[in-house]
Amino acid sequence: MTRPACIPAEYWDALPAELRPGLLAIVAAFEARIAAQDARIAELEARLDQNSSNSSRPPSSDPPHLKSAPPREPSGRRRGGQPGHRRNDRIRLEPDEVVDVGPDRCRRRGEGLAGDDRDPLVRQVFELPVVRPHVVEYRLHRSTCPRCGESPRGVAPVGAEVGYGPRAQAACAVLAGEGRMGKRLVARVMRGLFGLPIGPAAICDLERRTADALAPAHAEALGHIRGLPANVDKTSWPQGRRRGWLWAALANGLGVFRVAAGRGRDAFEALMGRSPPAVVTSDRYSAYAHLPAERRQACWARLRRDFQAMLDRADAGKATGEELLLHSGVLFDAWSKVRAGAVSRGTFASRTLPWLRREVRALLRRGVGCGAKKTAATCREILKVEASLWTFAKAEGVEPTNNAAERALRQAVCRRKTSFGTDSPAGSRFVERILTAIESCCRQSRDLLDFLVEAVEARRSGGKPPSLVPAGA
């Protein structure tokens, strides 16, 4: 019977033989418990060290003490615009009023001066006019029929029952959607800037009406994006007391959002259809596992964060994480040349891709057997979708990262931090439709307010609603 290292030899020799098995069992139990606690402590410490560079956490959650990017070498140039940079002059508008200012007398001799300068120096001053609501009052009179005595009342035009015109309704939607303002703040801003008396309840009603006005454009955009190569992502979105999810799909000139109850395959198919014909760029979540490798691109930005996490854990998987991070840097350097036009996509696929893919696959297999539990699990998970890591090299219009969807969801995340989601399905419909309008108009350089006014007017008059699908798409 071997003496445990934690028990001195003199104590072990003095212990009766019949008590030694029990003591060994106690020591083994305590050692197992200590090992489990050490593993738990290491796991909690690794969780505390998570930040935006080694996990899916947003940058806003980073602690103040997180180390910043290393300082760059000084370039030796002065601060500010450099010689040859593109000028950014103030925009010159058509003036509403022109004031000619000329000198009365010569500054040197005092002689009177007269005449006009053919090329005067122009200084424009921009000012906002005092805004007051344009109020139209409909007075519905009664008239009595001389023959039957009936007294019908005049009928107000369509939209008069709302109490607010299309532009006022669209402005409230812009403040609530793009400005991420709450109902009370929208009411204060409308009253302070435009002199429009309105209450939070009326704001809520106008949001519901705006959501109805945007329904045709949202449905059309949703149907159109299902046929395009799209970046797809999701974030949590509480609805009432239940946890929901806000899904986003981004493509050229189009961004579509949808609030769903879950984040599984059913929610993905409600957004992109049962079998999307084009490539879907996403993270490695299981909701996309049914997609074939040739129609799926796994996000390399997320991979880099996972490789950084392997490095930061400083265990047996550190070397694997360091090598994988290095190879991902090689990939992005090579891809930047493809984007700049210095290297063709075909050259990248035939020369750089084969050896890079071979090296990354070998490193992932080495990581599976590295002895670090989390690193091995991550490498095993990545190997399951390894074929989807390289789809971008052959599919036109596909990028290796899902950054477009993550950036589009950033506004929704900021909104969620202040509003804590929505209280009802009606509120969720407004959020998903106004976010779709904001993102799509931004991508197409369209004026959001003008689009919303057009949509509201079409809804009230029964006309053709405007489209968010880019022209010619």
UniProtKB/TrEMBL annotation:
Specify the DUF6444 domain's residue ranges: 18-90
Transposase IS66 central domain ranges (all copies): 188-428
Name the segments for region: Disordered.
Answer: 47-114
Q: Which InterPro entries does the annotation name? A: DUF6444, Transposase-related, Transposase_IS66_central
Matches recorded under Pfam families:
DDE_Tnp_IS66, DUF6444
Domain of life assignment = Bacteria
Query: Composition bias, kind Basic and acidic residues: at what positions?
Result: 102-114
Basic residues compositional bias: what residue ranges? 77-89
The record ties this protein, via PANTHER family, to:
BLL1576 PROTEIN (PTHR33678), PTHR33678:SF2
Q: What is this protein called?
A: IS66 family transposase
* Organism of this sequence: Paludisphaera mucosa
